[in-house]
């Protein structure tokens, strides 16, 4: 069915049911406002967040999406079927200009472990339909199909990998950061950023988020399943650390810039009110339970970190090992260790941004000071903490590096003595453009690092109480539309036996 005929059908359906289901506020003359699609996120056993933003002209220079200052009543429907014949919940929410006419509805009263469909209506217009799931009930452990992704630079390629993720019909999608990029428009890439400058104020961040969200492949991925999102650096500025910038251009108050970036991020993501920022602070790290099968510990490794050791370079720096240096901040470290020790589910999955496993220095001394190798004491306390608590099923999920990697996490990397967990690193959706399948990346210096591939894509996981099966999924090109996706490597992780196994 074409999008047009689908919309016509839904409009007809909703008109027929409208007298009883959707009592409309006085119509305001706005053009079709659902140009950014719909999204869901933050699944709980009794509900999920559903999101949209009204933006008839999403790239308007004021960042307000073509909306006036008037508040708009937005009706929403949740059904157990895609045609909305079995309505589960309905309601109305007010979209206000202070939040760029975004709406975040925190649904409650739904059944655990179920599939739902949702849509919105405003000013007589009907939104696309999204699919959401509630988390299973605690005490149950149905199999989970979860995809995770990172680093989706709009200019570097087409979002084919997002389209392929939607086609996988997953239960849950994680985005681990670099959802947008803040840089100025390029003249040499396949697409062009709006606005054309490096974004640094609220209007700019809103326009950039809106531009990304106009992409139909990204819209399809959001509509396919609930998402859990955490940011990395480019949602604000490359390699920032807390309030420390890595360059001084464009000039300006970084505190105000971070506040603008965080606000726009929250406005455009299916997050709860609990995550809404206050000035330049936003409570993004949080736990989401998937029944008794898995617990997602979603980490924020930007907002509280110490500045990169010895600058933002890629050389070994002795300061990296100082015991007081932190990537998570003290409060988040305590929160994470406390949550791990609770053993809330079979699997503990850390959704986070930067490379976690230690890399033993190569002859040229190359080491990323932006990764956990720049904060080794913090990493050591976490690994020792979960190991001492007897956790055998910790899997660290990582983004950032625009390559696929897989590694065993070792109690002592130098001695290579004992595996205490597993790290899966997703490549980028598009960032750095087309890959090269012939690239090599693993080294005998780091025997715990098992896999490297330079192609764009995502990771698919299927988790049961006894095993997580892992498929690295990739497309050959992103500068040409519509490549198929293929599995380039698979692993199994056995419950109770940390580390990567041949499938
Ligand atoms: Fe990136
Ligand atoms: Ca990054």
Keywords:
single chain; 503 residues; alpha+beta; Immunoglobulin-like; Purple Acid Phosphatase, chain A, domain 2; 2 domains; seven-stranded mixed β-sheet; 7 helices; 22 strands; 17% helix; disordered N terminus; binds fe (iii) ion; binds calcium ion
- Second rung of CATH, namely the architecture of the largest domain: 4-Layer Sandwich
Largest sheet: 7 strands, mixed
Give the domain tally: 2
Strand content: 25-35%
* Unreliable stretches covering 5 or more consecutive residues: 1-24
Structure, described:
With 503 residues, the protein is of the alpha+beta class. The chain has helices at 3-21, 160-167, 202-213, 216-224, 254-268, 330-341, 376-388; strands spanning 38-44, 47-53, 72-79, 87-95, 102-106, 115-122, 125-126, 130-133, 144-149, 172-175, 227-229, 286-290, 294-298, 347-351, 394-398, 404-410, 419-425, 449-453, 456-463, 467-475, 486-494, 497-501. It folds into two domains: 6-133, Immunoglobulin-like, CATH 2.60.40; 144-501, 4-Layer Sandwich (Purple Acid Phosphatase, chain A, domain 2), CATH 3.60.21.70. It has seven helices and 22 strands. It has a seven-stranded mixed beta sheet with strand order 11-10-9-19-20-21-22, covered by helices on one side. Strands 12-13-14-15-17-16-18 form a seven-stranded mixed beta sheet. Strands 3, 4, 6, 7 and 8 form a five-stranded antiparallel beta sheet that branches. The longest helix has 19 residues, at 3-21. The chain starts with a helix and ends with a strand. The model is unreliable at 1-24 (pLDDT under 50). Bound molecules: fe (iii) ion (FE) and calcium ion (CA). Residues 151, 178, 234, 400, 402, 431 line the site of fe (iii) ion (FE).
């Amino acid at each position: 069915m074409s999008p047009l005929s689908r919309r016509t059908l839904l409009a007809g359906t909703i008109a027929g049911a409208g007298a009883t289901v959707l009592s409309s506020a006085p119509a305001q003359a706005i053009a079709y406002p659902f140009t950014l699609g719909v999204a869901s996120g933050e699944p709980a056993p009794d509900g999920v967040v559903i999101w949209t933003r009204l933006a008839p002209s999403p790239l308007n220079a004021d960042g307000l999406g073509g909306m006036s200052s008037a508040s708009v009543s937005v009706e929403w429907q949740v059904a157990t079927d895609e045609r909305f014949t079995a309505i589960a919940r309905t309601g109305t929410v007010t979209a206000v200009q202070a939040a760029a006419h975004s709406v975040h509805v925190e649904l409650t009263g739904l059944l655990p472990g179920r599939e739902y469909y949702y849509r919105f209506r405003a000013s007589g217009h009907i939104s696309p339909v999204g699919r959401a799931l509630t988390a299973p009930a605690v005490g149950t452990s149905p199999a989970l199909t979860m995809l995770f992704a990172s680093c989706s630079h709009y200019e570097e390629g087409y979002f084919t990998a997002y389209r392929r993720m939607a086609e996988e019909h997953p239960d849950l999608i994680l985005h681990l950061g670099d959802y947008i990029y803040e840089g100025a428009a390029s003249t040499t890439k396949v697409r062009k950023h709006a606005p054309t400058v490096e974004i640094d104020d609220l209007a700019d961040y809103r326009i950039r988020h809106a531009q990304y969200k106009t992409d139909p492949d990204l819209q399809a991925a959001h509509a396919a399943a609930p998402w859990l999102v955490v940011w990395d650096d480019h949602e604000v500025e490359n390699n920032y650390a807390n309030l420390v910038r890595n360059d001084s251009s464009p000039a300006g108050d970084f505190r105000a810039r971070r506040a603008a970036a965080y606000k726009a991020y929250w406005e455009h993501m299916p997050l709860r009110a609990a995550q809404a920022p206050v000035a330049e602070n936003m409570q993004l790290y949080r736990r989401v339970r998937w029944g008794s099968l898995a617990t997602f510990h979603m980490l924020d490794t930007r907002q509280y970190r110490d500045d990169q050791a010895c600058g933002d370079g890629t050389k070994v720096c002795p300061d990296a090992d100082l015991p007081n240096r932190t990537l998570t901040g003290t409060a988040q470290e305590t929160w994470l260790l406390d949550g791990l020790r609770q053993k809330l589910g079979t699997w503990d999955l850390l959704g986070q941004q930067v490379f976690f496993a230690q890399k033993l220095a190569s002859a040229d001394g190359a080491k990323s000071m932006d990764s956990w190798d720049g904060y080794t004491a913090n990493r050591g306390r976490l690994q020792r903490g979960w190991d001492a608590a007897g956790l055998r099923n910790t899997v660290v999920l990582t983004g950032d590096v625009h390559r696929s990697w897989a590694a065993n996490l070792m109690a002592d990397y130098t001695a290579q003595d004992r595996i205490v967990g597993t790290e899966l690193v997703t490549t980028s959706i598009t960032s750095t453009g087309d890959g090269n399948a012939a690239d090599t990346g693993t080294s005998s210096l780091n025997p715990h690092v098992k896999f490297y591939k330079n192609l764009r894509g995502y990771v698919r996981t299927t988790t049961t109480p006894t095993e997580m099966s892992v498929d690295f999924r990739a497309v050959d090109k992103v500068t040409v539309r519509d490549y198929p996706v293929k599995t380039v490597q698979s692993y199994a992780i056995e419950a109770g036996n940390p580390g990567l196994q041949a499938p």
